[in-house]
Amino acid sequence: MRKNIVAGNWKMNMNQEQTVQLIEDLKKALPSNDASIMIAPTFVNLAKAVELTKGTSIEVVAQNMHFEASGAFTGEISADMLKNIGIKTVILGHSERRAYFGETDDLLAKKVTAAIENQMQVVFCFGEELEDRKSDQHFDVVGAQLKNALFELPASAWSQLILAYEPVWAIGTGETASAEQAQEMHAFIRKTIADQYDSTIADHVSVLYGGSVKPTNASEIFSKPDVDGGLIGGASLKAEDFSGIAVAFS
Question: Which of 28, 88, 186, 231 is deepest in the core (most CB within 10 A)?
């Protein structure tokens, strides 16, 4: 049975005071349903967030990590450092990490492998740019991203993976992605995994949608058979909006 997941990626937002307030607001606002809730504060607020969410259904996750265990990597964070403060899940491959920090499929393969070997869960992000969609290359691009970063993993590793499809072309471009387009790509993702591994793995991995989900469109998008929730950006920074998305699973 696949998990329904609503994950909030807070990106480079919220100082510690604001983080505390948002978490307290979320604890009051989030609905009780079968959706797993994740929030990803910035690194400096992770430990505080873990402390504040103890005993709740909210899981605190990291936005990134390095593939090495330790060493001369100024500004980087290792899997052990995250685990030591209670973090069990990390987001890897986000479109902003790819676009602004030059993260490649090969680098992400190293990060995913490091996380898996450290018994961490990974929310792996991928998706096509606007030019890929307009040139009808979106399936090829997504298929290659999956193959290059994930398909060297053993079948057993897939129990630690959550996928997050981000149609980058539909985020801040003025273009709009429909629920049908989300379903079409999610179905393709499952078929691609089934072809490489088997249908059991494809049917059991949660695939989230990361294309500007809001309270107004969450129910329609999440109703699609191959969409298991969302990776939420801006709307996760307001308790009312984030809970409004989570309630779509009620």
Answer: 231
Q: In angstroms, rounded to a whole number, what is the distance separating the alpha carbons of residues 242 and 215? A: 7
DSSP annotation of 62 reads B
Half-sphere exposure of 195 (CA within 13 A, CB side): 9
Q: Quote the tokens at residue 123.
A: 């929310």
- Whether 227 and 209 have beta carbons less than 8 Å apart is answered as yes
Q: Provide the pLDDT confidence category of residue 211 given band limits of 50, 70 and 90.
A: confident
Q: Is the pTM of this model over 0.90?
A: yes
Do the Cβ atoms of 92 and 108 come closer than 8 Å? yes
Say how far apart CA 203 and CA 2 lie, in whole Å.
Answer: 8
Question: Which of 143, 51, 44, 40 shows the shortest CA–CA distance to 91?
Answer: 40
Express each pLDDT in 35-92 by its tens digit: 999 999 999 999 999 999 999 999 999 999 999 999 999 999 999 999 999 999 999 9
Residues 22, 148: Cα–Cα separation, whole Å: 37
Stretch (H or E) spanning 54:
none
Structure tokens at 19: 């983080």
- Provide the annotated active-site residues: 94, 166
| 238: helix, strand or coil | coil
